[in-house]
Specification:
This protein has four helices and no strands. By secondary structure, the protein is mainly α. It is globular.
Length: about 80
């Protein structure tokens, strides 16, 4: 069953409607979004725990969310995504 925009925002936090809609459009499920958020929020810890890098839709969610962060940062501004 597809997630709603509200459910996606509950999982990834406050994002603009376009970003949430893009995650919805690719069809990522709850587990894939949770995996993506784990990598975004603690990539070093995930790697140190021996987890293989996110792939498939989880990786696509990461790409969408990091692109959204880059758009907010603007050119030349360092933000959290610059260190993931």
């Amino acid at each position: 069953m597809a997630l709603s925009l509200s459910e996606i925002r509950d999982l990834i936090g406050p994002v603009d409607e376009a970003t949430a809609a893009e995650v919805l459009r690719i069809g990522a499920n709850r587990a894939e979004i949770i995996e993506a958020m784990a990598w975004i929020n603690a990539d070093e810890a995930q790697a140190n725990a021996g987890r293989k890098p996110a792939s498939g839709l989880a990786a696509a969610v990461i790409d969408i969310l990091l692109a959204e962060d880059e758009d907010e940062d603007g050119p030349g501004d360092a933000g959290p995504s610059d260190f993931v």
